[in-house]
Amino acid sequence: MSSPSRPVTVLDKPAVLSGLFAVWRDIDELVGDLSDTDWQTPTPLPGWNVHDVVSHLIGTESMLQGVDTPEADIDVSTLEHVRNDIGVMNERWVRKLRTLSAAELLDMFRATTAERRQALSDLSNAQWNDVTFTPAGPDSYGRFMRVRTFDCWMHEHDIRDAVGAPASAGELVGPASDFALDEMAASMGFVVGKLGGAPDGSRVSFELTGPLGRTINVAVEGRAKVVDDFGDEDPTSTIQLDGLLFARLAGGRTSLEQHADEITYGGDQAVGRRIVEHLNYVI
């Protein structure tokens, strides 16, 4: 395909793959210890239980290996929680794999991710940096795999939320969470400027705390963009919250009302609050 108008994201292949492979390993270990009842527990994703989330992961990686999306027994586009064409494809995989037992599904997850590990490891650097379609628009295949790391990492925490097995501080720290947060940070210009409507001249800092602590700075200068810092200027709005909570709010996995007292605002609080109210940008 033709090159995108914006710069292509060039990422280190071994580093990104270390994150993606790590989150697959973590999910394998997490669900490997679940009871049959746990597999049927509803997750924060409407209409999906733990079994469905793992089915979705298998389906996406299978499609990336060239496997055709299965047909569904119903018109899945009529389901309330299916909101777009991507949701239709996801749901078709989920419904197809619901007939598998937990043990069969886990075996399929392991086989599918093993095949993907080999395929990704065999990619040349040229293929890794080649421009392709990604959920974030035309960009490098490496960017696509960072998006995959983010998606799988989010789904790990969907499962953890469902079965009451929150990650420890040690389990949160690692390449998977680093690249997941990197991917979310890349979308904060859109969140601050487009969704949150921060006025021109705004300088917004997300101050993430806890094991996932980092600062994400967004400057609005005509168009909002993520910056390393504001030079000699102070932020006009600050938003301080736990890093995992930031991720769950951005992914629409929890509501702001449940966590309003866990977020601190500084500077122009009205702008900060409006941004957080529109933080959920994930499809």
**Main sheet overview:** 5 strands, mixed
The total of beta strands comes to 7
Number of helices in the DSSP assignment: 13
Contiguous runs where pLDDT drops below 50 for at least 5 residues:
none
Shape field: globular
In spatial order, strands of the major sheet run: 5-4-3-6-7
Q: For the residues shown, what is the average pLDDT?
A: 95
Helix-residue proportion: 40-55%
Query: What proportion strand?
Result: 5-15%
**Radius of gyration from the CA trace?**
19 Å
> What is the distance, rounded to the nearest whole angstrom, between the alpha carbons of the first and last residues?
24 Å
Going by helix content, strand content and strand pairing, the class is alpha+beta
Order of helices and strands: HHHHHHEEHHHHEEEEHHEH
Helix and strand layout, with pairings?
Elements lengths: L12 H20 L3 H4 L10 H15 L20 H13 L4 H20 L3 H5 L1 E2 L6 E2 H23 L5 H4 L2 H12 L1 H8 L7 E7 L4 E8 L1 E5 L9 E6 H8 L5 H4 L4 E4 L1 H9 L6
Parallel strand pairs: 3-6
Antiparallel strand pairs: 1-2, 3-4, 4-5, 6-7
Helix pairs in contact: 1-5, 1-7, 1-9, 3-4, 3-5, 3-7, 7-9
Task: Sum this structure up briefly.
The protein has 283 residues and is an alpha+beta fold.
